Structure formats: structure tokens, C-alpha cells
């Protein structure tokens, strides 16, 4: 799956013949799973129609501060457009538009939005070869790079003037490849291997009954999706759950019992840089599993239980370089019990949940956690969505590697 999947891309189109390529560019963005909004300079509409780009992007095209045909005179808010975007691409970037970007000559919606952008800005120049080599153009490239903008170099080829040389806007496929490569190279967990457990385990009583818990698996799946989004190679060992991963590069290992989860974790742990044990693993299982369904024969029924293997403790006992994160769900003496678990299981970080907190616990969309590290630093967090909690946890992972 493309790193552009889910990204919000603001495409700025300026007035050059290469604008015709933006139809293919928008189509490729949509095919990659991106969300696209388009801003056109008035001159660019002579080369490609707003209707074409609106149809392909599935969004209205913006061109002026006010829609002239709109009787209510609702303005196109350049600040909102800029803040919406995960990245901005100006393609084609003509000599005129590049000059305005350098000087801040803000006479159209595209430049006003560019000046308001807080996201990464890419630009793909397009002009005739002498214009491309002119000292003013070259100094403009240098200035824009110093501003932090990223240039997608023009290619050699036939130009609209009939000449052949450098200045031709990069082909849409090459622009996509450039963006993907650049974004991937900057992902903070690129090259890291992360093992994550998720969901409950089911411990069989007989062929139809089991001992389980109310874990939905959402927290573990959110962690896996966010880790993959940050560039990590992810192995997700998942107990029974209805959740699905968003990214095809996440390797999902489906298990049912605590023993199966134990075996899977030990299979992948040695090659992991990080392990996050978010699963709610059963502490006990039936000592004997009936081969046939147990009939309801008496008013009372007893099951003899035995302890399951402690997956997290077993990983802590053999860890070498791995950054090991555990979860604790407590109902009393939360902080002290979590600190004991850090020591007992040789953890680097524990994520403490309390069933006493409103909005936290199983089968909730939100969670309220407290981070406790190996030095017993306690960091309580606010109630957040589980997706946001996943981001916070992985920020701890990023911080760990940045300090090495």
C-alpha cells in the first residue's frame, strides 16, 4: 500500500502548458488512496478545466477568494485549506508562480495558501530551458529550498517551444514515486520491526465453550496501524477479534489460546526492535479440556484451572536490545501494582489502565492511561481516543530510539 494512502494532499496548479498533466496526477493520487483538493490560478484554467480536476478529485476546485456566482459571497479560506493538508504540491510551478513564492507576492489564492502552509511543500518546476537556467530562476530554487520547500527536479525532453532540454515538468508517475520515496525516507520508525499483541485469548473448556474476557482488540490494532503508518515493519499477533488492519504490509498472525500466542511471540521476538503486549491474555486455563460437549447434568459444575505461561514475563527474561512495553489493567493500588510489574517482568514502559476511570477499559472507543517508565516516572494522560493513545505510545518508542 502506498505511503500516500490516507494523506490529505493540496495540489496547486499554475498557468503553464504542463497543467494538462495534473489530470493524470490527480487520478494517481486518488488511486494511491489520497484525499485531494485542488487550487488553480486563474491562468491555469486556460490549460485544464476546473470541472476535469473537480471530477477526478471528487472535491470542488478553488481558484479565487470568492466564488463570483455565489450570491452569499462565501470566501475560500486559504488558512483552512493550508491547515487541512498533510502536504502541498505545486505542479506545474511556473517561473511566475515560483517568483511569487520567493517574494511573497500574494495576489492569488494559491500563493496565499502557500504562505499559510505548515505542512511540507513540494514544487515541480515547468518552463522552457532558457527560463529554467536563468540566474533569477536558479536563485529562486535556492531560496525556496532554504525556506524548507522540496523541489521535484524538471526532466529533459521536448518542450512546448519546440526545443528539447531541461525544464519539462516531471511526469505524474515520477512525481508520485518522488513523493513516496521522500515521505518513506522521513518516517520515524522506518526500518524498525515491531511485535504487537492484541485482543483476548480463548481457553477451551470443551469443543463449544471457553474462558475468555471482554477485550475487543482495538487498542492493539490501532497500535499496529499507527506503527505501520510511521514506517515500521509490524507483526501483529491477534486473538479472536473482528478488527482488520488498514495496511497490507502488517503481518497478522491469528491465534486463539494463550499457548498459541506464547509460541507466536517467541517465534518473532528475537528479530524485533520493539514489542508491545496489548493483548488481554488469560491468566488461567482449564487443566483438562473435554473432547465432547459437557452435558448439563447437575446444579453445580467445577473446572480445575492451571496457570497459563506469562508471555510478557517470558519475553522480559530473554530480551536483549528490545524496547518492551506492557499493559496493566488494575482496579486497586494501580500505580504500585504497575511498578511491581515493571520490575518483575523487566519492562521498559508500562501503560496503566484503570477500570475506575470513566471512558476507559474494554469495548470502549476511548482510553485513559498512565505511562510509567523503568525509572518509575509517572505520566498520567487525559482521556483520548484509542487511536490517539496509540500515537502517544509510539511517540515513546520514537523518543527511545532518538536518545540512543
Automatic annotation (TrEMBL):
- Which ranges carry the DNA/pantothenate metabolism flavoprotein C-terminal domain? 189-398
Binding locations of CTP:
283, 293, 327, 341, 345
Q: Where is this region: Phosphopantothenate--cysteine ligase?
A: 194-404
- Assigned EC number: 4.1.1.36, 6.3.2.5
Does the entry feature the keyword Flavoprotein, yes or no? yes
Could you confirm whether the keyword Protein biosynthesis appears in this record? no
> What UniProt keywords apply to this chain's record, in alphabetical order?
Decarboxylase, Flavoprotein, FMN, Ligase, Lyase, Magnesium, Metal-binding, Multifunctional enzyme
What detail does the entry give on cofactor binding? Binds 1 FMN per subunit.
Q: Which InterPro entries match?
A: CoaB-like_sf, CoaBC, DNA/pantothenate-metab_flavo_C, Flavin_trans-like, Flavoprotein
Gene Ontology BP annotations: coenzyme A biosynthetic process; pantothenate catabolic process
Q: Which GO terms describe its molecular function?
A: FMN binding; metal ion binding; phosphopantothenate--cysteine ligase activity; phosphopantothenoylcysteine decarboxylase activity
Question: Gene3D superfamilies, per this entry?
Answer: CoaB-like, Flavin prenyltransferase-like
Give the UniProt entry's GO cellular component terms.
phosphopantothenoylcysteine decarboxylase complex
Pathway(s) of this molecule: Cofactor biosynthesis; coenzyme A biosynthesis; CoA from (R)-pantothenate: step 3/5; Cofactor biosynthesis; coenzyme A biosynthesis; CoA from (R)-pantothenate: step 2/5
Annotated region (Phosphopantothenoylcysteine decarboxylase) at: 1-193
Name the source's superkingdom: Bacteria
Domain named Flavoprotein: which ranges? 7-178
Q: What is the stated purpose of this protein?
A: Catalyzes two steps in the biosynthesis of coenzyme A. In the first step cysteine is conjugated to 4'-phosphopantothenate to form 4-phosphopantothenoylcysteine, in the latter compound is decarboxylated to form 4'-phosphopantotheine.
The text of the family note is:
In the N-terminal section; belongs to the HFCD (homo-oligomeric flavin containing Cys decarboxylase) superfamily. In the C-terminal section; belongs to the PPC synthetase family.
Instruction: Check the record and name the HAMAP family matching this protein.
Output: CoaBC
The protein's name is: Coenzyme A biosynthesis bifunctional protein CoaBC
Organism of this sequence: Flavobacterium chilense
Amino acid at each position: 500500500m502506498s505511503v500516500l494512502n490516507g494523506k490529505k494532499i493540496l495540489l496547486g496548479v499554475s498557468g503553464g502548458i504542463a497543467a494538462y498533466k495534473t489530470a493524470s496526477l490527480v487520478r494517481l493520487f486518488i488511486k494511491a488512496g489520497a484525499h485531494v483538493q485542488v487550487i488553480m490560478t486563474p491562468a491555469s484554467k486556460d490549460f485544464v478545466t476546473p470541472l476535469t480536476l473537480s471530477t477526478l478529485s471528487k472535491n470542488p476546485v478553488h481558484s479565487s477568494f470568492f466564488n463570483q456566482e455565489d450570491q452569499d459571497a462565501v470566501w475560500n479560506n486559504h488558512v483552512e485549506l493550508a491547515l487541512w493538508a498533510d502536504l502541498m504540491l505545486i505542479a506545474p510551478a511556473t517561473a511566475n508562480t515560483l517568483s511569487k513564492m520567493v517574494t511573497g507576492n500574494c495576489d492569488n489564492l494559491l500563493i496565499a495558501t502557500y504562505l499559510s502552509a505548515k505542512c511540507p511543500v513540494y514544487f515541480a518546476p515547468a518552463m522552457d530551458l532558457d527560463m529554467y537556467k536563468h540566474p533569477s530562476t536558479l536563485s529562486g530554487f535556492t531560496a525556496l529550498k532554504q525556506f524548507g520547500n522540496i523541489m521535484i527536479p524538471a526532466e529533459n525532453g521536448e518542450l512546448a517551444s519546440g526545443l528539447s532540454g531541461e525544464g519539462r515538468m516531471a511526469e505524474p508517475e515520477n512525481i508520485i514515486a518522488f513523493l513516496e520515496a521522500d515521505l518513506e525516507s522521513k518516517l520515524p520508525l522506518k526500518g524498525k520491526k515491531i511485535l504487537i499483541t492484541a485482543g483476548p485469548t480463548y481457553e477451551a473448556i470443551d469443543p463449544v465453550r471457553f474462558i475468555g474476557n471482554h477485550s475487543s482488540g482495538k487498542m492493539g490494532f490501532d497500535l499496529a496501524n499507527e506503527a505501520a503508518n510511521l514506517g515500521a515493519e509490524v507483526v501483529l499477533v491477534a486473538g479472536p477479534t473482528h478488527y482488520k488492519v488498514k495496511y497490507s504490509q502488517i503481518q497478522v498472525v491469528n491465534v486463539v489460546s494463550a499457548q498459541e500466542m506464547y509460541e507466536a511471540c517467541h517465534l518473532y521476538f528475537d528479530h524485533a526492535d520493539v514489542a508491545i503486549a496489548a493483548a488481554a491474555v488469560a491468566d488461567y486455563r482449564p487443566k483438562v479440556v473435554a473432547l465432547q460437549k459437557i452435558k448439563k447434568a447437575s446444579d453445580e459444575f467445577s473446572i480445575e484451572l492451571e496457570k497459563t505461561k506469562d508471555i510478557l514475563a517470558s519475553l522480559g527474561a530473554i530480551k536483549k536490545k528490545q524496547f518492551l512495553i506492557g499493559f496493566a489493567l488494575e482496579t486497586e493500588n494501580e500505580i504500585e501494582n504497575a511498578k511491581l510489574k515493571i520490575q518483575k517482568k523487566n519492562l521498559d514502559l508500562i501503560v496503566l489502565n484503570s477500570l475506575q476511570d470513566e471512558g476507559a477499559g474494554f469495548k470502549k472507543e476511548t482510553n485513559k492511561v498512565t505511562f510509567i517508565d523503568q525509572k518509575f516516572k509517572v505520566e498520567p494522560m487525559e482521556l483520548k481516543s484509542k487511536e490517539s493513545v496509540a500515537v502517544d505510545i509510539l511517540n515513546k518508542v520514537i523518543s527511545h530510539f532518538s536518545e540512543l
